[in-house]
């Protein structure tokens, strides 16, 4: 019974020759004082007492310096920011090399499309309806199904034998897609050669 009373009456104030240093953001108290152990037999007890002193000092510091608020969830104690710089486990990764497109875009001042520009639907003023930008009944096929069109005499003179004006829009669209795919494959080959991928 007497032993339990002495344990419950441990001092709240801890005094050391060199004061502790704190990083309350990490709940850390550093004791710069050398560890003095009297004998190997009482090793565990003395280590536990030193750890208890450190925990007591940390609690005293928290309760005296940090703001405490009472909320419906309970009593909350707001910790300050972390002051100890922690080292990284691994070194910083090297900066990623720009792709061919990123270099070209930076050179030409091309910016990424906004959320509004990336939307799939566009308003067609002629029909008064929202239509997709591309694909089935897309806005990119406008004029392909016109039954009457204005003819350019120069283009008609240069027209290949056996082709009609009716399929020009579709042919141009398909050719544009093929050109884009060829350029994409060439960029991939160039990227592999430069060791980017």
Question: What is the succession of H and E elements?
Answer: HEEHEEHEEHH
Secondary structure: helix percent:
25-40%
- State the end-to-end CA separation: 74 Å
Give a short account of the largest sheet: 2 strands, antiparallel
Tally of helical segments: 5
DSSP E strands, number: 6
Low-confidence stretches: none
Outline: elongated
Main sheet: which strands, in order across?
Answer: 1-2
What class would the helix/strand composition place it in?
alpha+beta
| Rg over alpha carbons | 38 Å
Mean pLDDT: 82
Strand content: 5-15%
Describe the structure.
The protein has 197 residues and is α+β, with helices and mostly antiparallel strands. The protein contains 5 helices and 6 strands. It has helices spanning 2-8, 43-65, 100-108, 153-158, 168-193, and strands at 21-23, 28-30, 68-71, 74-77, 121-124, 129-132. The strands form 3 sheets. It has a two-stranded antiparallel ribbon with strand order 1-2. Strands 3-4 form a two-stranded antiparallel sheet. Strands 5-6 form a two-stranded antiparallel ribbon. The longest helix is centred in the last third of the chain and has 26 residues, at 168-193. The radius of gyration is 38 Å and the shape is elongated.
């Amino acid at each position: 019974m007497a032993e339990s009373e002495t344990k419950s009456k441990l001092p709240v104030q801890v005094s050391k020759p060199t004061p502790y240093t704190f990083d309350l953001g990490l709940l850390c108290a550093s004791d710069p004082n050398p560890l003095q152990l009297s004998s190997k037999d009482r090793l565990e007890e003395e280590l536990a007492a030193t750890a208890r002193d450190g925990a007591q000092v940390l609690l005293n510091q928290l309760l005296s310096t940090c703001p405490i608020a009472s909320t419906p969830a309970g009593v909350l104690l707001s910790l300050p920011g972390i002051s100890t710089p922690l080292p990284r486990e691994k070194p910083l990764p090297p900066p990623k090399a720009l792709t061919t497109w990123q270099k070209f875009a930076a050179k030409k001042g091309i910016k990424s499309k906004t959320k509004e520009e990336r939307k799939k639907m566009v308003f067609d003023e002629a029909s008064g309806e929202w239509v997709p930008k591309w694909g089935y009944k897309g806005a990119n096929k406008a004029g392909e199904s016109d039954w009457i069109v204005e003819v350019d005499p120069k283009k008609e003179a240069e027209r290949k034998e056996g082709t009609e004006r009716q399929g020009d829009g579709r042919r141009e669209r398909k050719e544009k897609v093929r050109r884009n795919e060829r350029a994409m494959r060439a960029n991939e080959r160039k990227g592999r050669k430069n060791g980017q991928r």
